[in-house]
Specification:
By secondary structure, this protein is of the alpha/beta class. It contains 10 helices and 9 strands. α1 crosses α2, α2 runs antiparallel to α4 and α6 packs parallel to α7.
Length: 282
């Protein structure tokens, strides 16, 4: 395998990955480029090159782990979100493109020209908090997570990106926000039902179950946040929640039940119901 060219290596890997990945060619190229410590464009520019033995060995080891189902993000220890390169570990959920919808919805509700306060509940790697901090540098953002290991990753991302307007606090949902009120609270909480066996299969089985699973119906975390948020929002403040593809009716109903107004549900780029918003009256 060490005598194969870059083009041959990526093509062979893509063929093997087709059985377990929806993006086999992309996976193969990303891993090979990382093994070379080069951008993916290097593979197109120099397809006939033969990698050094240690580079080929690194790629082969990563490929075997990917074939066993391990996500590319965990293999490389990083994932891009909102054009930010974030460190990720098995202690954090892997940031997903559909979560960028939550960032878009928040930015629509956060003014550019004045200071605002924002909370990100269940921050994980810090993806949402850091994206909002970069786009709204005058905002003060508090990111909470009950996992100290996840907060350590998020703090490392903030330092590496030079983001100074995010404060990280350990605790469950709104508990670390006691005594404060915010203009907007956003969260991508766990929302997979414990009865849904899919979280035990494929790449999901490598991610922390506590960041994925929320009770028998997948709504226990969302119920807790919706109940706690009114006391932590200023009058007129917004609550934004990512939810499962089949929760586009249940989550808005919870928001209405807890007195939120201007409740709406939103589709992601794939046309799937993905996020709900509600405003505290005032």
């Amino acid at each position: 395998m060490s005598l194969a060219t870059l083009d041959e290596l990526s093509a062979d890997a893509a063929r093997r990955l087709a059985a377990i990945s929806d993006t086999p060619r992309l996976d193969a190229e990303v891993l090979l480029a990382a093994a070379l410590d080069r951008p993916r464009s290097h593979l197109l520019a120099w397809p006939e090159r033969i990698p050094e033995p240690e580079q080929a060995a690194r790629f082969a080891a990563w490929l075997e782990r990917r074939l066993a189902g391990e996500p590319v993000a965990y293999l490389l220890g990083r994932r891009e979100f909102w054009s930010l390169e974030l460190d990720v570990t098995p202690d954090t959920l892997i940031p997903r493109p559909e979560t960028e919808l939550l960032v878009e919805l928040a930015l629509e509700r956060l003014p550019v020209d004045r200071p605002v306060t924002v909370a990100d509940l269940g921050a994980g790697s810090g993806a949402i908090a850091l994206a909002l901090a970069v786009e709204r540098p005058r905002a003060r953002i508090v990111a909470t997570d009950r996992s100290l290991a996840a907060l350590t990753v998020a703090q490392r991302n903030a330092r590496r990106l030079g983001v100074a307007n995010v404060e990280f606090r350990e605790g469950d949902w709104c508990a670390p926000l006691a005594g404060e009120c915010f203009d907007l609270i956003a969260s991508n909480p766990p929302y997979v039902a414990a009865t849904d066996s899919r979280w035990r299969r494929g790449a999901l089985r490598f991610e922390p179950p506590s960041a994925l699973v929320a009770g028998e119906d997948g709504l226990s975390a969302i119920r807790a946040i919706v109940a706690q948020a009114p006391a932590r929002l200023r009058p007129g403040g917004w609550l934004l929640l990512e939810h499962g593809y089949d929760q586009g009716e249940a989550v808005p109903a919870l928001l209405w039940e807890w007195g939120f107004v201007e409740v709406s549900d939103h589709l992601d780029a794939a046309g799937v119901s993905r996020a709900s918003c509600g405003r505290r009256p005032g």
